[in-house]
Amino acid sequence: MFDPSIVLSTFGLVFVAEMGDKTQLMTMTLAHRYRPLPVLAGAFAAFALLNVLAVVVGEALFRHVPREAVLLCAGGLFLVFAWKSWCDGGDAGEDDGSTTRRGGVFAASFLLIFVAELGDKTQLAMVALAASLGSLESVFLGGTLALWLVALIGVAVGRTLLTRIPARGVHRAGAVMFLVFGVLAIANAVVGDALAA
Q: What separation in angstroms does the CA of 17 have from each of 12, 23, 144, 154, 189?
């Protein structure tokens, strides 16, 4: 069952965190060199698989680890991501994504984005959200839609958008969102412990 509030909060967090990130720039570069449709298809498939992995791990943590421990760990991760996003504001990354592999543009896009995002802050954030909220479907839907929209923007209007909106501002907004999620997760863990005592 989907929880609209979890879908929207996951969407907002992942969308802001990934705008202007290296994978969006990689998608933009691939679409500039090749036909956009196979680039988008490869990106969408990579993000979907990564998000399945993230929410499955998060669901396992939700079932087998005490909620307060998960919330404290999730809150700590979000605070680390907030600090990293703030410090990296404006850092667009160096990978131009120009290398193609055997199997065509779809395979190249899939592999480049899968490798770039595996273990990235947004994937770990989705693990933490699924673990702390327990709503596998809602976290998956919100995160996947956000990443797909970021890829679509990267292909369609990425260059124009990123020249008008400073990358530093986008990263700083992501840092603030991670900070809010981190503080809320830790507060929920502390309040839960206090009520249980």
A: 8, 11, 13, 14, 24
- CA–CA dist 96, 100 (Å, integer): 11
Q: How do residues 92-136 score in pLDDT, each as one tens digit?
A: 443 344 444 434 889 888 887 887 777 677 888 888 888 887 788
Q: Is 151 helix (H, G, I), strand (E, B) or coil?
A: helix
- Provide the angle, in degrees to the nearest 10, between the axes of the packed helices 67-87 and 167-196: 160
* Residue 87 one-letter amino acid: C
**How would DSSP label each residue in 13-75?**
HHHHHHTTSHHHHHHHHHHHHS-HHHHHHHHHHHHHHHHHHHHHHHHHHHHHS-HHHHHHHHH
Q: How far apart are CA 120 and CA 128, in angstroms?
A: 12
pLDDT digits (tens, 9 = 90+) for 9-41: 899 988 988 887 777 777 877 776 677 888 899
Virtual torsion, Cα 17, 21, 24, 29, nearest 10 deg: 170
Tokens 């990235």: give the residue. Answer: 120
User: Could you give the CA distance from residue 97 to residue 10 in angstroms, rounded to a whole number?
Assistant: 27
Q: pTM for the whole thing?
A: 0.66
Half-sphere exposure of 187 (CA within 13 A, CB side): 6
Q: Which residue is listed with tokens 């399945």? A: 52
Residue whose structure tokens are 């770990």: 124
